[in-house]
């Protein structure tokens, strides 16, 4: 009996040592995500345990906007964060050094524009049925965001400019309530607020969704000193994001994905998550198509005088990590074009 007891004690001690060792070896990482369904890759990576599976002790930090995430990144509150291609280049031109290592949102790998999750909703009784009907109307939009660039491009293609509408600066958390209260005639929003507005404001109508105006896209990036200080940790982060994106895209996981989203995105239930994520592309890849989408966004920013000159995407994008992931785990990308 003593031999058995000693063996059990030895096994228990070894197990405890192994568990403790695993805990010590896990790399701490703080990952930022926006408080909307765009951040679902991050939420699934955490909720399904993919970060932990790849040896990361992750903390997810949620902010309302990309600019808030960038501020947190600058302050060292997070290690990796997303930022939209329609405003990130402005910061890069001003000297903010970042390295993008993995895709976060949008179909930038395959196309220069990808905006199916953004749209314009009009209040009932406004007579707004098309972009041209926005003339002289109060249009809510978060200034400086992808939604703002989307609005201006839509107006431009309709032979108008931002001066033809009364743009009202509305923060994303207030998009639905401002439209509902009549503070604006129409609202430029992205998911889940597009669907939430159509549900909440009875009689409202979707003027337009998508249209190929902009690339509502983003990659995950970090400061160079963070990205390259521990390449093994960065690679583990990219692997976890890629596996999460694959799980997220698989239709058989939709129920579980929706439940995870309802836990992370304030004001959303599982049903709403399911109805909105279908409008979003989740692709962890970055490559030549990403660079093309980035250049297209820079071209728009230059035309709007927000940037002075082109910016080489190679100074931002580092494909080495995701290339390694694709080589080792092609099954995670087999469903993508």
What does this structure look like?
With 337 residues, the chain is α/β, with parallel strands linked by helices. The chain has two domains: 2-113 and 216-332, D-Maltodextrin-Binding Protein, domain 2 (3-Layer(aba) Sandwich), CATH 3.40.190.10; 118-209, Periplasmic binding protein-like II (D-Maltodextrin-Binding Protein, domain 2). Helix content is 43%, strand content 16%. It has helices at residues 2-25, 40-47, 50-53, 66-74, 88-93, 146-157, 175-181, 193-200, 224-227, 231-249, 254-264, 270-277, 288-303, 320-328, and strands at residues 27-34, 56-63, 81-84, 99-105, 118-122, 138-141, 166-169, 186-190, 205-209, 218-222. Strands 7-6-8-5-9 form a five-stranded mixed β-sheet, sandwiched between helices. A three-stranded antiparallel β-sheet has the order 3-10-4. Strand 6, helix 6 (146-157) and strand 7 form a beta-alpha-beta unit. Helix 2 (40-47) packs across helix 11, helix 7 (175-181) packs parallel to helix 8 and helix 11 crosses helix 12. It is globular. The termini are far apart.
Descriptors for this entry?
337 residues; alpha/beta; D-Maltodextrin-Binding Protein, domain 2; 2 domains; 5-stranded mixed sheet; 3-stranded antiparallel sheet; disordered N terminus
Short description:
43% of the residues lie in helices and 16% in strands. It is of the alpha/beta class.
If you consult CATH, what is the topology of the largest domain?
D-Maltodextrin-Binding Protein, domain 2
The CATH architecture designation of the largest domain is: 3-Layer(aba) Sandwich
What percentage of residues falls in helices of 4 or more residues? 40-55%
Domain count, please report it: 2
Total of helices: 14
Q: Specify the CATH homologous superfamily of the largest domain.
A: Periplasmic binding protein-like II
Distance between the termini: 62 Å
Beta-strand residue fraction: 15-25%
